[in-house]
Amino acid sequence: MSNQLPHLSTPRLLLRVLKPHQAERLCELANGPNIAENTASMPSPYTLQTAQEFIEGMQEKFRATGLLSLGMHRRDDDGLIGVVSLRINTAHGYGHLGGWVAASERNQGFAAEAASALMAYGFEALGLHRVGSQCFSRNKESARVMENIGLCYEGCLRGAFLKNGVHEDMLVFATLRADWEARV
């Protein structure tokens, strides 16, 4: 596995490392509606310092822990619209997808487009055996994205995640390389 974060492109998006000058925009987007409440570990409020530390640490987290995070940028105007990630477990050949899209950019297929590109990268460039994700059972939009990119529903982990003092059910989705190859 390369030590450098990749630069990926899709028909409408550029997925690449964030630059320090994007910290204010990242902070603004991350504080938007339904971002922190639908993600496992995003702090709320999301401060400018948090954004700066996230951007500064992207490359090192990839090298040290296998967390591949990329900013989602629109091709037409290079605007930052979200973040997509793949947490890589090389010992098990597994990648866990995550991410979020700004409220103003939702329901346009950007999350599925970015996640599909990162999943393809995981299977093709990293040789992963399995890619999966999870979402809170109340987050129907994320569940729909996972199904749209070819992840299969595997079950519900009841009360598996404590979020804001409430035990939440988590829906689990995944696909194996062979299943993904049969679709492409």
TrEMBL record:
Classification via Pfam families: Acetyltransf_3
Organism encoding this protein: Pseudomonas quebecensis
Name of this protein: GNAT family protein
Keywords annotated in UniProt: Acyltransferase, Transferase
UniProt xrefs under PROSITE patterns: GNAT
Highest taxon of source: Bacteria
SUPFAM superfamilies: Acyl-CoA N-acyltransferases (Nat)
Domain N-acetyltransferase: 13-175
Entry annotated with the keyword Cell division: no
The family this protein is said to belong to: Belongs to the acetyltransferase family. RimJ subfamily.
